[in-house]
Each structure stands twice: as C-alpha cells, then as structure tokens.
Amino acid sequence: MRNVHEMSGGKYDDCWLRYAENGTSKSYRERCSNVYASVEAPELGAVRDELRRGFRGLLGREPHFWQHPPRSADGFLAVGTPAEMEVVSDCVSSEAVESLDDEGFLIRTADWEGAEIVVVTASTDRGLVYGTFYLLRHMSLGRPLDSLDVVREPTNAERIVNHWDNPFRRSVERGYAGPSIFDFERLPDLRERYVDYARLLASVGINGIVVNNVNTQIPNRDGANEATNELGGWQLLETRYLEKLTGLAALFRRYGIRLYLSVNFGAPEKFGDLDTADPCDDRIEQWWAAKADEIHECIPDFGGFLVKADSEGQPGPYNYDADHVNGANVLARALEPHSGRVWWRAFVYDSHEDRAVQQYNTFEPLDGEFHENVTVQVKNGPIDFQPREPVSPVFGQMPETNLGLELQITGEYTGQHVHACYHVPMWKEVLEFDTDPEGRGRRVKNLFTEEGTGIAGVSGPGDDPNWTGHYLAQANLYGYGRLAWNPDLDDETITDEWVRQTFGDDPAVIETVTDIMHDSWPAVIDYTTGGLGLLHMMYNGEARLENHYDPSPEEWPGYHGATEDGIGKDRNSKGNGYTQQYPAALAAGYDDPETCPNELLLFFHHLPWEYELEDGRTVVQTLYDNCFAGAAEAERLRDEWNSLDGKIDDERFRHIAERFDEQVVQAERWRDTLVAFFYERSSVPDQRGRVPSADASDESGA
Questions:
Q1: What confidence score (pLDDT) does residue 691 get?
Q2: Pair (165, 112) in one structural domain
Q3: Which of 49, 153, 281, 312 is catalytic?
Q4: pTM of this prediction?
Q5: Which of 36, 446, 461, 668 sits at 20 to 30 Å (Cα–Cα) from 49?
Q6: Residue 328 to residues 177, 291, 320, 379, 646: CA-CA distances in angstroms?
Q7: CA 474 from chain center: how many Å?
Q8: CATH number of the domain that 343 lies in?
Q9: pLDDT higher than 70, residue 699
C-alpha cells in the first residue's frame, strides 16, 4: 500500500487519503475513467486535482478530463451544478439541488443517452468539494457505484479546527508532532503541505480554521507577559501580517474553508496607539470596526475572531470593569457588516478556587445578551479536557445564546500522542448526553444545529511526516470531522471507515486495529486516574512549560481531594454546590453517591476509602484494580499491535510498535505512582496483595 506522499524536502503520510486499489476497481474504471467536470470556480480546481489524485490510486490510471460530455465512453463521472451542465440537469431536478443546504450535495447514478454515469452535484461549489470527497471515500471503502442515490447535508453549520500555533517561533502549544505546519515568516509563499492539510480537512467536512494560538499573550515563568508577547501571535492583526495571510486564505478557500484569527483583546492598546481597550469606549468601537474593514479588504470571506479573555493571563473586559457581553459584542458589531463571527471562549476560571463552578456562574446569567454573531465556545467538560469529565452544565441552559462545543482533538491529557487514545467514543458520550432527562432540554448533539452554533476542535497537527506524532492519532482528526458533520454517526462506523482507508482491507488488520482503537480510551482512564471520576493526577511543571504527561498526584489536592479519611471532591449540595447548576433530575442523580454514576463518583463526592460500591468492592480497592487493569490493558494492546508484524508496512508498524513500548512503560509508571499514592493516603492495603515498585513514590515526574 502506498504509504507516503512525495514533496520537496521530504515525505509525509497520506493519512486516510491513500486511495488504494481494491476489489471493485475494475467496475470503477468503467464508470470513472472519464470525467466531465465544471471549471467555473476555484473550488472546481480543487475538485479536479483531487479526482486526479484519487483515481490515479483507485483506478490505477489518470482520469481523462473532458470539456464536454464524452460520446465515445460507455460511462463517465459528471461533476457540476445543473445550471452549469446540461447532463446534470438531465439527471437531477433543479428543485432537488436548490433545496440543498449551501454545503450539501447529491450523488446519483443514471443512464444518460446509453452511458452509465455518476453525477455529483450541489447548489454551491463548496458542496461539490464535499461531494467529491464523499465519492472518493465511498470508492476507497470498496462500495459499489450501482444505484447510488445519496443526499448529504451537514448537521452543524460551523465545523472549525482551532490551532494553538505560535506563529513567530513555529511552536505548537499542546502540539506533539513537531513544529507548526505554518511558516508565517515565509508567507505569502505557500508550501505544498498547506494544500494537503486543506485536503485532509475538507475530506471530513471542516469549513473553518483558526491558524494561531488562543493564548495570544503567553505568560512567562514569573506570570508576567512582557518577555514573551512576541511569541503568541497578537501581531497578526497588523497590516503587514494580514497581507501575508491572503494567499493562505485563498488556498483554504478553494477547499471551502474560511480562515479565522485568534485575537488579543488588548490589541487597541498593544499596537493601536490608544491608551485603553475598554469595550465601552467609542474609540475602541471605531478601532475594531476599522480593523474588521481592513481584514475584509484582504480576506473577503474572513470567518471572524476567536477570543480567550480574562483567563490565564489574557487581557479582557474585566480589566475595564466591563463584562463578557460588552467584550464580545463590540467585536461582533465590527464583524457584522462582513458576515464575520466572534467565537468567545467560556474557559474562565482565574477568580474561583474550583474552576468547575465558575463557568456556569459567569455565563448563564448573561444568557440572551450576546449579539447574534457571537458564539460562546464551551469545553465539553467544566475542568480542562480530562480523560473523562461530566458534561458542562452550560449546555442546555443558555437557550437564548449561540453555543459552540469545544473538543480537544490533540491528546494533551490522554498521553500526548505517545499513548494510543481514541477520542471518538469519548465525544460520542458527550454528544449523546441528555441535558435534561425530564424533557426541557435536548441532547448535546442537538444544540448546534441552528445558524450561529457549531463545533470547534483544538487540533495539534505539526510538521512531522505523520502529521500527528502517532499514526493512530490521525483517527482523532478524522473522527472529529466526521462527527462535526454528522454527530449521529456511531463510533463503529467512523472507526471502520478510518481503519479501512488507512490500513487497507485485510480482515485481520481491520479487526485488530479496530479493537485497539475502541479499547484504548478506557485503558488510559484507568491507569492515569484510577477511574471513578478522578482527574488532574499529572505533573504540572513550570509555568508555561507545563508537562502534563508524567504522574504527580501530590500536586493536585484541590482536584482529587485525597486525605487520610477519603478521596474525591464534594461538588454537591453539601460542598460547593456544583451539582445544583444542572437541571433538577441530573442534580438529584449526581448529588447522591448512591445514584451518581460510578464513572463520575469521586468528581462529585468525597467518600471514605472503604466506602462500598454496588459490586461490593470499596473505593480504594476499585482504584487499585482499575490502575492495574489499565496497565495490563496497555500491554495487551501492544501485543495486539505486534501481532500485525508483516501485515502493515514496516515504517508505520515499527513506529507504532515503539510508541506502544513506551506506553506500556508509562502505564506501569502511572499505575505504580497512583497505587502508592492511594496506599500512602489511605493505609488500606490491596486485597490482592499487589505491591508497586519500591521507588514508585519518587517517580512524580519532577
């Protein structure tokens, strides 16, 4: 199987866009060796380029492109709108196409003047891009072209990836795959890699990209911001850098992807020759309006701003005795004439001892006050992308506000792309969560279907040849895009698609890789937390050089609440009241340890070490068992992967095998550190007599 894509200066992986020949290639050649495709827009250039790449692999030959329907061919592929191409209007009614969403598409097989043809059509050029990638995926999976009648539209209008790239040093915060893909200093010169990244995103339906870090002002080790301001990217609003971005925006535009920027709320002060950034000051209103006009001149389809304000050292409206509505709306008014949007992050916790409580308390009272082109971007859980958290209570309880779901594609707390950890099952758990079982609310996945809502994923691809640092981590980017387009997809379907496109159609490989992917997340939960809702057991490190990789539970007593008498955090009615932020039915269930789900038990309750669970085991024994089970599972996953020796190309097999070797060592290290920590705090021995290594208590990662 073709493994890499040639480029000047090296090779890089094709991920799921390998386009390998399969058992149905002969029938594909009969229908698709000839292509009649529109050339009326830049997006159609992307369509033609992708068909060349795809059919070169799937058909074993370049397709023959025609400017007119070929009369000599027994079959052909037609790509275009009914208005542009008569053959399309002959096969598909204009009404059917006009009724499609702007990004929807229709694919149909038909008999046209004796020729068997495949038609890809849409109401917009972006829809044709998505339809083309759908057809190529369909063929990559070896599915037949006979009797196709496919209509697809995105469930969510906004499907964005957030890059945390620091433009002027090419580093990536929470990135585990080398330097930034983007070389801002060389823009507007464009790298071939930008094209292939746009292809990867468009193939799974992404339509927006934020190219720089939300931390536009990066605190230095002393907590000040002076030494490192130049690293975070707030200068991208300067005219000289906006001009550099025009080519990049045009490239992504060809693939239906709009460019966004993270902006520093204090920009009018930083380089605007003003003495304030007060959102209630008329001068600031005028400054942002003028800046939005300037951006629109450079990038006509500019998506808008992503803002992290009043959190972790970032300036915000609190600096000026204003609130988040004032801050977001002044930017929204500036962008409104250009159909731009403000994505205002709700990750605000500086002023409260438990960040779980603050987000709801801060934003729920502001429901209904945000401008229509503001989307409040809320992380899936109330803490910070932990291996498992409860769903944020903000979802379902701000009905008058456009909300966006923020997920972490990169693996900050799930092994940092050294460990295999498949996030799609985690995200499905979030998306299927009922925000109010008594009927007032909706499932999380149903909250982002209206205009102005959407899903954003914190993505961390880098310049390493495999894009994500771990070949298996590519599945998280793929799965995110597929779920953002259609959150009703089940994880089995997504996994099967990704495995087959990435590793081929060998049944043994498909079964083994699929099992590894589905079993990886539970294993990581067990050996990095002990389960039962614990979190934040990792080493923090120094200021902005945070590690978050090694075990160090001693650092986080405020999160796990471990004492001699028990463990867990009372986020219930007798504690800090966090459970009461949920609707009544959920609050009641979470508030009682007898009805609280086991997987969240210690998140909501501080319980005695020997508190007995439903299965008869105590809390501490369950923690011991989970830590050992997680480490054992990591070893089993490694053995499963090693069973594929000779069935996977050597480069990927060896790389993943070596990552699994490291994961096993780290899982054992986590297990021994946590078990020792639980024993030191509880003085309760493991009933099964398992003893951690003698030096485990010294392995805190410090």
A1: 67
A2: no
A3: 312
A4: 0.95
A5: 461
A6: 33, 15, 14, 18, 55
A7: 11
A8: 3.20.20.80
A9: no
d(CA 346, CA 559): 20
Q: Which domain holds residue 20?
A: 4-152
Length of the chain: 702
**Predicted pLDDT at 694:** 44
Hey, CA dihedral for 159, 162, 163, 167, is it positive or negative?
A: positive
Residue 120 clears pLDDT 50, i.e. is over it: yes
| Stretch among 508-522, 523-537, 542-556 having the lowest mean pLDDT | 542-556
The question of whether 125 is a catalytic residue gets the answer no
699 is catalytic: no
Catalytic position from the list 30, 49, 102, 384: 384
Q: Based on the domain organization, do 359 and 491 belong to the same domain?
A: yes
Q: Is the pLDDT of residue 217 over 90?
A: no
Annotation marks residue 412 as catalytic? yes
For residue 702, give the nearest of 574, 545, 480, 523 by alpha carbon.
545
Here the CATH number for the domain that contains residue 637 is 3.90.1330.10
Rounded-to-integer distance, Cα 588 and Cα 577, Å: 12
> Are 62 and 56 within 8 A, CB to CB?
yes
Amino acid at 490: D
Domain identity same for 139 and 168: no
For residues 69-100, b (16+ Cβ closer than 10 Å) or e, as one string?
bbeebebbbbbbbbebbebbbbbbeeeebeeb
Angle at alpha carbon of residue 332, lines to 224 and 174, rounded to 5°:
40
Tell me 163's DSSP state: E
The helices-and-strands tally (H runs, E runs) of the chain is 20, 22
Structure confidence by residue, pLDDT tens digits, 548-567: 899 999 998 989 999 999 99
Which band of pLDDT confidence, cut at 50, 70 and 90, is reported for residue 232? Answer: low
In a domain, 254, yes or no: yes
Q: What is the dihedral of CA 674, 677, 678, 682, to 10 degrees?
A: 180
Cα gap 585→291, rounded to integer Å? 47
Out of 173, 196, 278, 412, the active site residue is 412
* pLDDT for the residue 697: 46
Chain centroid to Cα 340, Å, comes to 22
Average pLDDT over every residue of 570-593: 96
Residues 165 and 145 reside in one and the same domain: no
Contact criterion met (CB below 8 Å) for 550 and 538: yes
